[in-house]
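ARCHIVE CARD
CATEGORY: sequence design from structure
SOURCE FIELD: tokenized fold
FIELD CONTENT:
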């Protein structure tokens, strides 16, 4: 045993230190650790303010690329392959392409921004169909068309002809102007060049904003997928178990695939996203299921995160005693500019640590009550870095960071929401897993979230 426990100390108890410092046999070690990063919390952060499509940004592309592509002065104009054996195949990816340079990148990026509008226009149209933004009739037509293709799958080969015919008929002069083709005056045979948005215009900045959001989505998808790479490259002890499960399910799926009706399967799988994104499912069905199964789902999600953290532990962590230290994040809700409690109008409002009132608890506190752990002189307050007083031989686990408590067992039986937040009234009392409407109407409500991080005991070797 690393330590001796004679009594069970409640987690809400406040540790009282003796004023006689000379009686301390072992000085307490000060360990500095960074604050938790709420952007990694399961709660979705509010999206940044969209770029205002104003003019006057002709040098925006040059500034972005100049700050991102800072090439050394001695960069060779072409890619040099060193260490290649004679007769070995040379890489052909960049051998016949333009060399890496800021002028070429800037020019191609400007061209791409001005010509990428149709791509994002198509993306918006697909979102309107799948997310029911144009009404149920518009989406139901596309669902019926997909169901028709599932019944007659050979008609898929006619889709290219259908698309071309649709474009030709949509641009037909008789249909666009509502007149007969013979009554229209003769037109010149020369095609009218397509206009492209000029650099700095509203459409050009809208394309740039869409590219910015697309880069963020690709980066988020990459960060999500890279977590599973160790399980596929035999860098985790669970790779063998994963291989056995995949082989077993593969053998089981072979006879089942032949038994599945392909048309019905494609119909169900194709219409399932429309059912999931329907407003009734998003605003009524899923919240109802979440309210009933919320604690179970939060517990399962917390267990899954704990399994991922346990998989990253080293042997010295498994052989040592593990405990947890805790920290609380505090925020206050403030009504938005659209209304206030006195006016009786419903305002959206924002949650922020900057809304905390002077004299109340700070944005980050160590005590469960919001005040414990802070000295009278204010030295215990948490700022950019957090200083924990760990006993001799205790260290933070290096392979993991702060984790939000998604279960909210510390506030039972109230519980927490899906992000670990516990909502209280203006006086930080009456905890609930969700904000109450009377608090919103009164213009004052608060919330707090518990963060935990594990420590392990490793005594220093005796001299």
């Amino acid at each position: 045993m690393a330590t001796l426990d004679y009594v069970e100390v409640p987690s809400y108890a406040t540790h009282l230190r003796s004023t006689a410092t000379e009686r301390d046999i072992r000085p307490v070690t000060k360990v500095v650790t960074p604050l938790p990063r709420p952007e990694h919390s399961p709660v979705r952060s509010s999206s940044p303010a969209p770029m205002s499509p104003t003019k006057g940004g002709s040098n925006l592309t040059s500034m972005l690329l100049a700050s991102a592509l800072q090439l050394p002065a001695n960069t060779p104009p072409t890619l040099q392959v060193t260490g290649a054996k004679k007769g070995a195949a040379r890489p052909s990816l960049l051998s016949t392409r333009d060399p890496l340079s800021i002028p070429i990148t800037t020019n191609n990026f400007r061209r791409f921004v001005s010509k990428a509008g149709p791509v994002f226009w198509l993306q918006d149209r697909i979102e309107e169909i799948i997310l029911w933004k144009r009404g149920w009739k518009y989406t139901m037509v596309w669902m019926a068309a997909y169901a028709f293709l599932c019944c007659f799958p050979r008609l898929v080969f006619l889709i290219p002809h259908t698309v071309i015919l649709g474009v030709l008929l949509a641009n037909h002069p008789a249909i666009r102007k509502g007149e007969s083709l013979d009554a229209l005056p003769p037109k010149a045979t020369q095609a009218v060049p397509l206009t492209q948005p000029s650099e700095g215009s509203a459409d050009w900045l809208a394309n740039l904003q869409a590219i910015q959001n697309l880069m963020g989505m690709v980066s988020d998808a990459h960060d999500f997928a890279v977590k599973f790479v160790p399980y596929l490259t035999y860098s985790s002890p669970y790779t063998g178990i994963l291989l056995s499960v995949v082989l077993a399910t593969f053998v089981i799926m072979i006879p089942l695939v032949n038994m599945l009706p392909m048309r019905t399967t494609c119909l169900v799988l194709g219409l399932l996203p429309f059912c999931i994104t329907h407003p009734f499912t998003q605003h009524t069905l899923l919240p109802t299921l979440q309210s009933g199964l919320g604690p179970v789902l939060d517990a399962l999600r917390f267990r899954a995160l704990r399994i991922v953290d346990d998989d990253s532990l080293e042997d010295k962590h498994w052989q040592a005693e593990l405990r947890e230290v805790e920290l609380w994040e505090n925020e206050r809700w403030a009504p938005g500019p659209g209304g206030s409690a006195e006016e009786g109008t419903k305002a959206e409002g924002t949650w922020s640590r900057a809304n905390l009132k002077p004299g109340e608890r700070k944005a980050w506190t160590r005590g469960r009550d919001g005040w414990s752990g802070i000295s009278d002189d204010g030295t215990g307050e948490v700022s950019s870095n957090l200083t924990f007083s760990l006993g001799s031989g205790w260290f933070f686990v290096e392979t993991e960071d702060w984790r939000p408590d998604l279960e909210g067992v510390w506030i039972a039986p109230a519980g927490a929401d899906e992000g670990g937040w516990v909502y209280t009234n203006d006086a930080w009392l009456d905890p609930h897993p969700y904000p109450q409407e009377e608090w919103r109407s009164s213009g004052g409500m608060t919330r707090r979230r518990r963060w935990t991080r594990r420590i392990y005991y490793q005594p220093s070797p005796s001299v």
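CARD ANNOTATION: The longest helix spans residues 279-311. The CA atoms of residues 13 and 210 lie 52 Å apart.
SHELF: design records, drawer C
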